[in-house]
Design a protein that fits this description.
elongated
């Protein structure tokens, strides 16, 4: 395995690269752009890279399905860190291009919902075609295949383009969440401000099936941050659920919730427990009464004493 190499969704100039460069360890690694999320993650699976940074969620469009599906299937991988990056787009064009010259635009599919209103107001006749990434869209503009691309302003110099318009976003404070993914290993120690990610499959579709899954968290006071359904490919109506929960697998309430899921689900894939980006331990809400580690340990001690006739 190459311990010195990190892959990311490329080419150079993507928001993913910008997010990766915020990590201190990126300064000591070889950063290798890949053509797609699956390619970036497969490099980790084969040992060509120690880790990959990929987008997983956008505050406007929601989950990045390519990443969710890759983490749900194939050889297991694990999330070790997350990065939050504010997102604002620039309209990148070849030098000399005016707004009235723009007839075709491109960008990553996740970008389109974030600039839809701006497009409608400023380029209502422009035709949108998706690119593999925003930076790849910039490359295609450089080659003359499109008139403009929505990408990070920082990508302009890489592709010999100029930002015609900057700070484009339909939703203020838009963010994208990225995850650093590696091969499975022991999770890092709890920090007090952690997140646990899993994918679960229902045993069968019946009334209350989803509620049964959610109850495993609710009765233990575990707050869910993300719940997304994805088709399993086994036919209409067959879904798995990607879940992000507050807390760490080492927390008794979280560990017991995962054990509960394992009892009632045909498959549970643990994707990792890792620090929450931008959240300090003091910012995390207190657990509900009876759901702290101390309460769980006291209950276990009471049960053991009862079994021994010492209650």
């Amino acid at each position: 395995m190459s311990a010195t190499r990190f892959t990311y969704l490329g080419p150079e100039g993507t928001f993913t690269e910008a997010a990766l460069r915020t990590l201190p360890e990126a300064a000591t690694r070889e950063l290798v752009p890949m053509v797609s999320v699956p390619a970036a993650l497969d490099a980790v699976r084969t040992g060509e890279a120690a880790a990959a940074l990929v987008p997983i969620e956008n505050s406007v469009e929601g989950g990045v399905t390519a990443t969710l599906d890759e983490l749900s299937g194939g050889e297991p991988l694990m999330i070790y860190r997350e990065v939050l990056l504010p997102i604002a787009f620039a309209l990148l064009v070849r030098p000399g291009t005016q707004l009235s010259d723009v007839k075709t635009v491109t960008g990553h599919p996740v970008a389109q919902p974030q600039v839809r209103n701006w497009l409608r107001a400023n380029l209502p006749e422009a035709v949108w075609e998706s690119a593999a990434s925003n930076a790849d869209g910039a490359r295609l503009v450089q080659e003359g295949r499109y008139d403009a691309a929505f990408a990070g302003e920082f990508a302009a110099a890489t592709y010999g383009l100029v930002p015609l318009v900057t700070e484009i976003h339909d939703a203020a404070n838009a963010e994208t969440r990225f995850v650093l993914v590696g091969r499975p290993a022991r999770p890092s120690s709890p920090t007090g401000a952690d997140k646990t990610s899993v994918v679960v499959w229902q045993r069968e579709d019946h009334p209350g099936a989803l509620m049964e899954l959610l109850q495993e968290f609710a009765i233990r006071g575990v707050n869910l941050m993300v719940l997304q359904s994805r088709p399993t490919g086994a036919g209409i109506g067959n879904y798995c659920f990607a879940i992000d929960a507050e807390g760490h697998i080492a927390d008794r309430r979280v560990g017991e919730a995962l054990m509960g899921l394992k009892r009632i689900c045909p498959q549970v894939r643990f994707l990792g427990s890792y620090p929450r980006a931008g959240v300090a331990p003091g910012d995390v809400r207190e657990t509900l009464p009876g759901t702290s580690d101390t309460a769980f340990m006291a209950a276990a001690d009471w049960l053991a004493r009862s079994q021994d006739g010492r209650a």
